[in-house]
Amino acid sequence: MYRISFSSLLILLLFSIFSLTTHAGQVPKPLLPLTLANKMVAAAMQQCERDGFQVSIAVVDRSGVVQAQVRMDGAGAHTIESSFRKAYTSASLKLPTMKMAQIAAKDPELQGLHHMANNILLLGGGLPIIINGEVVGGIGVGGAPGAHFDEVCAEAGLKSIQENK
User: Fold this and answer.
1) Whole domain around residue 104: which residue ranges?
2) Which residues have C-beta within 8 Å of that of residue 153, sequence separation ≥ 6?
3) Predicted confidence band at 3 (pLDDT cuts at 50, 70, 90)?
4) Is residue 125 part of a domain?
5) Domain membership flag for residue 88
6) pTM of the predicted model, to two decimals?
7) Is the sign of the CA dihedral 100, 106, 111, 113 positive or negative?
């Protein structure tokens, strides 16, 4: 039979209390579930199909990791990268990429933002995904004949999950 000493029990108890207090101050952050990422991609794709555009669509989580991505038939190979970079930029900077592009165009110091990280792309078509007031990711669309058309498709993706609320 095993004998547990009082000091061993005390150490176990202290570690348990320390572990609980360490995690007690952490507030769980909302996540971007795969089901919502897929729903956004599908809605953005439908919008682009209606508008006659062949694009790529990417959804990333708050860390910039791809949750879902598609390249529509006929979309250029480069659109895979541009959709990802737009999604990454909007998740990372927590602003629409169109807005960031406009701000950078007016302020020469900000024009170097795209050199800050390889995945930053200051071109419209990326939007932050906000759940319960927190940015949980980004959606990016690339390949329409103009960044404003990319953004319309990205907005359709966002609207698809806002209807759930």
Assistant:
1) 34-162
2) 44, 45, 47, 48, 51, 53, 55, 57, 125, 141, 144
3) low
4) yes
5) yes
6) 0.82
7) negative
